[in-house]
Write the structure tokens for this entry.
Amino acid sequence: QVQLVESGGGLVQPGGSLRLSCTASGRTFGSAFMGWFRQAPGKQREFVATIACRSGNTYYADSVKGRFTISRDNAKNTVYLQMNSLKPEDTAIYYCAAKRDLTAWRFPSQYDYWGQGTQVTVSS
């Protein structure tokens, strides 16, 4: 299995920034996509962003376009989520996920591995 560990969450004021990291380790074939999902209390887990590990192609939820940037460092088996202009509605637990195939990428059920999550709270 692949183990994913997120870091970088915390408390930030509206308009502030955070940078999340996700590092993969363990026995892996190499992931096709690594992405970020988030889940707020009482809500479904939702797609945030994902990146194709080989091509670097990125995809974003409409709600975060222009504010969040996903990137990767394949040599370090790490993906990042730079979050700028944060809003209270961005408050959630953010989960890193990885999938092994090169097809679908928008839904949680399509991912094979998950981290434990890191809390992001945007509040004044």
The two ends are 40 Å apart (CA to CA). The first strand starts at residue 2 and ends at 7.
